[in-house]
Amino acid sequence: MAYDFKKEQKELYQPKVACIVDVPEMTFIMVDGAGNPNTSKEYQSAVEILYGLSYAIKMSKKGGKPTLGYFDFVVPPLEGLWRLTERESIDFSEKDKYLWTSMIRQPDFVTTEVFEDTKAALSKKKPQLDLTVARLERFVEGLCAQIMHLGSYDEEPVSIEKLERFIKESGYYGDISDLRRHHEIYLNDPRKVEPDKIRTIIRHPVNKN
Asked: Where are the alpha helices (DSSP H) in the chain?
């Protein structure tokens, strides 16, 4: 069976209540951009690039060149790091000023060589994609608080308020900065479910008081 990060690492992807989690170092394909994700062509292109590369890596098992350490896996969910222009906080009323990093986790066998080979192969199949904007990065998030938000993205402030209250009551303080940002993990496709069934993990970096 294909390895599913969401099922095998439930502490990271299935929080039942607000909780503190120490997020380990992980490998991601990332694309940076700016603007409202609901209207930005740049954002839509980034998502297409991320899924294109991720599925190409998954299906590389059918190619002629075996990848050292390869194992079959379920492509992990789309994630996003968010902040506002010149500010570290996030304001849901100022979407046009968003600075974002969209990303999808990769298995550890995805090295720089595997990534570059995949980009070269995908560029031949989809020459319309600008794959130069994608990068492979080891991301260290560290100590965080997270909560499961159920509902539309515009209703996230309610869950964020709960998360911030939990952080304070648990003896921690929020540590959002330019490097440690508001983080969202999208567990389902909003185009395929009703708004009240959208599941999003909201994760904020913290430190101990």
From this structure: 5-8, 10-13, 41-58, 112-125, 156-169
Can you give the pTM of this predicted structure? 0.94
Q: Over the chain (209 residues), what is each successive 10-residue block's mean pLDDT? A: 96 97 98 94 97 96 81 97 76 85 97 96 95 97 97 94 97 92 94 92 96
Please give the Cα distance from 141 to 203 (Å, whole number).
10
Please provide the size of the chain in residues: 209
Report the alpha-carbon distance of residue 106 to residue 22 in Å, rounded: 19
- CA–CA separation, 13 vs 25, rounded Å? 15
38 lies in the same domain as 110: yes
Q: What is the largest CA-CA distance in the chain?
A: 55
Q: Which of 139, 158, 186 is a domain's end point?
A: 139
The single-letter code of the amino acid at 119 is K
Q: Closest Cα partner for 114 from 68, 77, 76, 72? A: 68
Nearest residue to 36 via CA among 4, 82, 79, 73? 82
Residue 87: predicted pLDDT: 64
Does one domain contain both 68 and 108? Answer: yes
